[in-house]
Amino acid sequence: MDKSIHRNGSLPAGSLRGFVLVGFGGGTETQALLFAVFLPLYLLTVLGNLTMIMVITLDAGLHSPMYFFLKNLSFVDLCLSSVIVPNALANIFSSSKVISFEGCATQLFLFSLLGAIEAFLLAVMAYDRFMAICSPLRYSVNMSPTTCAFLVLGTFCVGFLNAIVQTSLTFQLPFCSSNHINSFFCDIPPLIKLACADTTLNELVILGISGFIILCAILVIIISYGYITVTIIRMQSGSGRHKVFSTCGSHMTAVSLLYGTGFAIYGQPGSMDSTEQGNLVSIIYTLVIPMLNPLIYSLRNKDVKDALRRLGQRHSLVKKSGWCQHQGLC
User: Which residues pair with 275 in a beta bridge?
Assistant: First the structure.
């Protein structure tokens, strides 16, 4: 740690070279418990999302726009957790818990990038379901591979612009009052609290951008599912309705989980002034939701379950064939 940092954690302007991630605090037992909870959840996140990516890539039955978007969602979830959790796990038993200025800026940039991409990907997936259900005859034309690629590219462009603005606005502030971040990773609210300047403009701009992103995504989702609901009501076939519900159920569960959690916690007045509540939100977004999304889409989706079964059978046949050749029996 820089020697110019004072005993109380304050430091003179211009001397900041790194931050200290305070995390959750507590003694050794608390830290050990956090590690014991975080590590299995992260491993499940990695395993679940890698499995989803592999199954969609290898199974020809899942080579459709819906699963193309789902594969990208799994990739984003995997990256989002990997940007935050490994460093948090390493810091749990670290005595210094220091992250460099550049490392903190990079972490915030990637978190802002991936968070915005995920929000818009869920909106794109809702639009895809709208096109598939409300305009099935033109679906293959309207949702061509080129169109799908451009839609995903658009989400990455929006995420990149969001990350550039959020990171540049945050790190142009002078951090000269303290270098202790009351979080387990570099996030905007705890970083702004460290600035020794008026942050009103930063907070308004950041709030406006975040609100615009969330509002646009939610509007696309609401309009898409509004049309889908009208189409379902007009359906005469009960089996057709059941198929539509099963197709959209997984996506609506993921949407409700992401946005419902955000509204339930961020919507409370003064909730982000609480360090504990801010950390809870961070855990949900960086660990719990990325872990649950693959489970939601695999357990509630017949196509994915069938693909997993086919992949397992193919693996068993390959393994059996290899054993047979090794024994000289075939």
Answer: none
DSSP state string for 114-143: HHHHHHHHHHHHHHHHHHHHH-GGGHHHHT
Here the tokens at position 168 are 């540049």
- The DSSP H or E segment spanning 110 is helix 101-134
C-alpha atoms less than 13 angstroms from C-alpha of 218 in its C-beta half-sphere? 12
Determine which of 7-16, 121-130, 199-208, 314-323 has the lowest per-residue pLDDT on average.
7-16
Backbone φ, ψ for residue 198 (5° rounding): -70, 120
CB burial of residue 178 (10 Å; 0-12, 13-18, 19+): buried
Q: How far is CA 207 from the centre of its chain?
A: 19
pLDDT tens digit sequence for 113-166 = 998 999 899 999 999 999 998 888 899 999 999 999 999 999 999 999 999 998
- The radius of gyration computed from the CA coordinates of the chain, to the nearest angstrom, equals 23
User: Average pLDDT of 11-27?
Assistant: 66
pTM for this prediction: 0.84
How far apart are alpha carbons 149 and 147 in whole angstroms? 5
Q: Which amino acid is at 51?
A: T
Is residue 301 left, alpha or beta, with left meaning phi > 0 and alpha meaning psi from -120 to 50? beta
Q: How far apart are CA 168 and CA 205, in angstroms?
A: 12
Give the model's pLDDT for residue 155.
95
Q: How far apart are CA 215 and CA 188, in angstroms?
A: 20
Distance between CA atoms of 325 and 54, rounded to whole angstroms? 27
